[in-house]
Amino acid sequence: MIKIGHKEIGKHAKPFIIAEMSGNHNQSLERALHLVDLAAEAGVDALKLQTYTPDTITLDVHTGEFFIQDDANLWKGNSLYNLYKEAYTPWEWHEAIFNRAKEHGLLAFSSPFDETAVDFLETLNVPAYKIASFENVDIPLIRKVARTGKPIIISTGMATASELDEAVRAARAEGNHQIILLKCTSTYPATPANSNLATIPHMRELFGTEIGLSDHTMGVGVSVAAVTLGATVIEKHFTTSRADGGVDSAFSMEPHELKMLVEETERAWQSLGQIQYGPTEAEKDSTKFRRSLYIGKDLKAGDVLTGENLRNVRPGLGLPTKYYDLVLGKTVKQDVKKGTPLSWELLL
Predict the structure, then answer these.
(1) Residue 344: what pLDDT?
(2) Which of 33, 38, 123, 233 has the fewest CB atoms nearer than 10 Å to its CB?
C-alpha cells in the first residue's frame, strides 16, 4: 500500500479522489482559492495543479505545428503558446493555493512539466508528483521526480506498453517504487466507449503497481466502473460551473458532480467486499422467508401426504422443497394442524 501524506492508497482503502484544477482558475487567484474551498466541500482527498509557464512548455511561435488547426480539437484556433499562457497557474500562486488546501485538510500537489518545475515544487514540500500523459515519455523528467523519493502518479494516455515499461523502469532505477499508473484517454472530453477500462486489471498485473483512472469523460459512470475493476485512484478536472468558460471547463465536473463522484466511487468500493457464498450475517434473518414444505390441511395420524395437503410455500421453517417428491405418499404419525412446518419427526 502506498501513502500520500496521511492517506493510504490501495484496495483496503476507499478510492483516493484527486480534484484537478488545471486552468479553471481563469487567471484569478480569488477564483482558484474558491475552487479549493469547493473541492474540500465535495469531500475529495487531494487538489492538483499543473506547474509550467508558456516558455517552459513550448516556444513563442504561432504558426505551423505550433498552431492548433484540428477541427476536432477543443482548443482549435489557438497557438500552443497562447493556450498555455491562458491556462497556466502562476507559480507565485502555488503557495497560497496549497496553504488553503492544507487549511481544509486536503493534500495538494502538482504535475511538473520540466525539471525547473520539480525544483520549485520541492521548495513547497509537495507530498507527491503527477506525470501528465503527454510527459509519460519524458524519461529525464520521470527520473528527476523519482529521485525526490515521493510517490509518482503517471497518466498513461497514448502510451504503449513498452513506453510505460520504460517509464516504470526509469522510476524504479532511481530507487522509487511508489508508483501509481492512471489509465487515461487523452481526448477532451473522452467517451465511455473509448475508455477501455478492461486495461486496468491487466495493467496492474503487467506492471505490479497501483492502478487508477484519469477520467476525461462526462459524469461519474466511468469512474465508478473503474473502481469495480480495481482502480484505487480517480482524478477528475473540476470547475465552479461549465458555463463560466475556461480552457478545461467543457469536460470538467461541477461541485455537485464532484461530490457525487466521491460518494458513488466509495459506494462502488464498499460493494466489492470479498468472495462470499451463503447468507451474510445481514441476510440470515431473511432465510426464513424462503419456500419450504408445510402441511396445507388438518391431518389425522395415519393420513398420507398428497399434492393437496402438502404445500410448497413461504416461510422457510419446514423441510427444504427439494424433498417434496421424496415425502409424497408418506404417512404422518400424529395429528397435524394446517400451517405446521413439515419435519422428519412427523413421518413414519
Answers:
(1) 98
(2) 123
